[in-house]
Protein: Stage 0 sporulation protein A homolog
Amino acid sequence: MAKILVADDAAFMRMRLSNLLTEAGHTVVEATNGAEAVEQYRQERPDLVLLDITMPVMDGLAAIEAIRALDPAARIVVCSSLGQQAIVLKAIQSGARDFIVKPFQPDRVLGAVERVLSTS
Structure:
């Protein structure tokens, strides 16, 4: 299965996503903010990133740009409670491949992960 980086400043959200993904057979690496997510991406080269938008130190939109600068082919799915259309559009324009709104449904997360992993 895939190595997935979960970046979220909320410990319970990282735990929930990590448990869901681990149960589905994936390996999970975690980050607590956008800057840490960029560093973890540089070190771990995960197959996919699940990224929150609102985080301290560096927000998710800045992290998307930094990760895509390291790897233009990076597969990123935004998972955030910010469901505003402008934020979703900005995330997609920055390179995210999908957007999941919290609180999420487990099937929606797994479906997005499988769909994005199946594309190059």
